[in-house]
Specification:
This protein is mainly α. 69% of the residues lie in helices and 0% in strands.
């Protein structure tokens, strides 16, 4: 069987036109996460999506615009779902637990480690894309977490802290653990944190750092002091 004949019978080539952009975005997310922006090739994205390279240009005029759409349609919705994952009537501690669990679930997906490496190590070389990613992803995610911290401080559940600095500390803890536990982690396998314990450990550490100190009982007038 010739390659041309095999290609024509490949089910990926018989997709409906409206399905193609989504398949291209899925392939692009994987290729960007695996190789970064510089080394990502449209030919490989096309091959994984089961389309021709020319088909990509019908929907996305450049690799940079393709990256933007991956952020909008693949990465952004995962962050947006954090709003729905947090019960508005729960305590700040419950909300923080939900936020951390959702973040860890999202960042535990197959392409997450590579995407974080891309953002941390390469995105600065593309200032326009870096600014776009910051506004679309980081600002929204930080706002959700910052609101939880501020509610906890206002309710007395959390000790007074700088919410912005607290957000940065928590996000750094989560992101670094993704890199430490991923398939390309720098440590040998036997020295990597056990993935099943990471969320519980992060949650325990963060809550102990934030909880307000219990109020000491004031002795009654005339009662002896301990």
């Amino acid at each position: 069987m010739s390659s041309a004949h095999a290609t024509s019978h490949d089910p990926r080539w018989r997709r409906l036109p409206e399905e193609r952009p989504q398949q291209i975005l899925d392939a692009a997310l994987s290729v960007f996460s695996e190789h970064g922006i510089d080394a990502a090739k449209l030919e490989e994205i096309a091959a994984r999506a089961g389309v021709s390279k020319g088909t990509i240009y019908l929907y996305f005029p450049s690799k940079e615009e393709l990256f933007r759409e991956v952020v909008r349609q693949r990465v952004g919705p995962a962050i947006a779902n954090a709003d729905q994952a947090i019960a508005s009537d729960g305590s700040a501690e419950d909300q923080l637990r939900s936020y951390l669990a959702h973040q860890w679930e999202c960042l535990g997906l197959e392409d997450s480690e590579g995407w974080i490496r891309l953002v941390v190590l390469e995105l600065h070389k593309y200032p326009d894309l870096a600014a776009f990613h910051w506004e679309e992803i980081v600002v929204r995610s930080n706002r959700i977490l910052g609101d939880i911290i501020r509610r906890g401080i206002a309710s007395g559940e959390f000790r007074p802290t700088d919410p912005q600095a607290t957000v940065q500390m928590i996000k750094a803890l989560i992101l670094m653990h993704v890199l430490w536990t991923g398939p390309r982690a720098p440590a040998p396998v036997q020295h990597r944190p056990a993935p099943g314990n990471v969320l519980a450990n992060i949650t325990d550490f963060v809550l102990h750092a934030l909880r307000a100190a219990p109020q000491r009982a004031v002795p009654a007038s005339g009662a002896p002091h301990a």
